[in-house]
């Protein structure tokens, strides 16, 4: 099978104009103090240069995309940074142990191309950990499945940019903010959901024509209001339909984009192109992302145990980690939304693994 067929799943978003596992046994706390795990907040920290990185060579995984080196990126320091929480160290990712802990189970990413970015990262991290273990990669419609038969583990990505319904009707494409009809596809031992950056697309990158809530249909509305209604619909679906004693549910947080150098103190920088180093320190000088607060508010209000991967800060600090002009496939667009692999999404999976060890 031609693995390149899977490289660009959902990557139409690449041209966007902008684009935890949080948890304890009790209800998740996503308040101002953040999630503490054994006294450590995994989502507060900074990026440090490390000769022990990257965790893998992207060339060993021809089935993934976002390989900026193969696409001609000349600098390589972006591969060498690891995420260092302020109060602790993340355990080194052990792919074979990850597979053993999930033996006989399935993991499904449901979301947009940032979910795809994380899915590709995890499949490569696991494959390079057990390079002699057979794997299969299949695609049926919008579902891509990477399987390790030896472990009985399936890592799936189901493309769904909004989580709520996008209906094709006579008037056009209608985004139904209070409706989910595809939830019967969301079946796995671990579910990792994500939606955000499609909501702020404009112009020719907008993939809908109208918003609908109840019987009311409008051509435009405040995007963050629409996003909050939709993610609240998703949260109610989870509360009503998922048995979290059997299925772990995660929300992959809001991933940052870098289209304005003023945000990180370089007003001469038009976007992420040419950036080769992270923002220093553990604070981002730019504006906060409104989607982050909405996600935290909704997840913290849920009845069921849902764990938030609060990746916003650690992605804000990585202005250097995007494909920019090295997205491949002949693209002439500057991609400051997705992430090179190896790279930033590996840290998301490292945190996922660290929290798995604790639970």
TrEMBL record:
<dbReference type="Pfam" id="PF14416">
    <property type="entry name" value="PMR5N"/>
</dbReference>
<keyword id="KW-0812">Transmembrane</keyword>
<feature type="domain" description="Trichome birefringence-like N-terminal">
    <location>
        <begin position="39"/>
        <end position="89"/>
    </location>
</feature>
<feature type="domain" description="Trichome birefringence-like C-terminal">
    <location>
        <begin position="90"/>
        <end position="354"/>
    </location>
</feature>
<dbReference type="InterPro" id="IPR026057">
    <property type="entry name" value="TBL_C"/>
</dbReference>
<keyword id="KW-0732">Signal</keyword>
<comment type="similarity">
    <text>Belongs to the PC-esterase family. TBL subfamily.</text>
</comment>
<keyword id="KW-0472">Membrane</keyword>
<dbReference type="Pfam" id="PF13839">
    <property type="entry name" value="PC-Esterase"/>
</dbReference>
<dbReference type="InterPro" id="IPR029962">
    <property type="entry name" value="TBL"/>
</dbReference>
<keyword id="KW-1133">Transmembrane helix</keyword>
<dbReference type="InterPro" id="IPR025846">
    <property type="entry name" value="TBL_N"/>
</dbReference>
<keyword id="KW-0735">Signal-anchor</keyword>
<protein>
    <submittedName>
        <fullName>Protein trichome birefringence-like 42</fullName>
    </submittedName>
</protein>
<feature type="signal peptide">
    <location>
        <begin position="1"/>
        <end position="20"/>
    </location>
</feature>
């Amino acid at each position: 099978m031609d693995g390149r067929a899977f490289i660009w799943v959902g990557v139409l978003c690449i041209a966007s104009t902008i684009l935890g596992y949080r948890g304890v046994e009790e209800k998740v706390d996503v308040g101002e103090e953040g999630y503490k795990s054994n006294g450590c907040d995994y989502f507060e920290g900074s990026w440090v240069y490390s000769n022990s990185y990257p965790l893998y060579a992207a060339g060993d995984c021809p089935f993934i995309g976002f390989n900026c080196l193969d696409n001609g990126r000349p600098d390589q320091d972006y591969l060498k940074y690891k995420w260092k929480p302020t109060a602790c160290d993340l355990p080194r990712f052990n792919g074979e142990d990850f597979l053993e802990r999930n033996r006989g189970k399935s993991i499904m990413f449901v979301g947009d191309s940032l979910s795809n970015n994380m899915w590709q990262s995890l499949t490569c991290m696991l494959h390079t950990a057990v390079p002699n273990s057979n794997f299969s990669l299949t695609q049926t419609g919008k579902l891509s499945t990477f399987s390790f038969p030896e472990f009985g583990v399936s890592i799936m990505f189901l493309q769904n940019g909004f989580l709520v319904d996008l209906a094709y009707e006579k008037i056009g494409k209608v985004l139904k903010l209070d409706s989910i009809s595809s939830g019967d596809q969301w079946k796995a031992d671990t579910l990792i959901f994500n939606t955000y950056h499609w909501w702020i697309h404009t112009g020719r990158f907008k993939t809908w024509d109208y918003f609908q809530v109840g019987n009311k249909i409008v051509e435009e509305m405040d995007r963050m209001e629409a996003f909050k209604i939709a993610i609240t619909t998703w949260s109610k679906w989870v509360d009503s339909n998922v048995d979290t004693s059997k299925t772990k549910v995660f929300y992959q947080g809001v991933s940052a984009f870098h289209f304005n150098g003023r945000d990180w103190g370089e007003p001469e920088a038009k976007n992420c192109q040419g950036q080769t180093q992270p923002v220093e320190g553990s604070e981002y000088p730019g504006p906060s992302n409104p989607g982050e607060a909405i996600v935290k508010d909704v997840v913290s209000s849920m009845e069921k145990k849902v764990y938030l991967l609060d990746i916003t800060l650690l992605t804000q600090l990585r202005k250097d980690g995007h494909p920019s002009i090295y997205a491949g496939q002949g693209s002439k667009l500057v991609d400051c939304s997705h992430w090179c692999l190896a790279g930033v999404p590996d840290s998301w999976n490292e945190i996922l693994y660290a929290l798995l060890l604790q639970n």
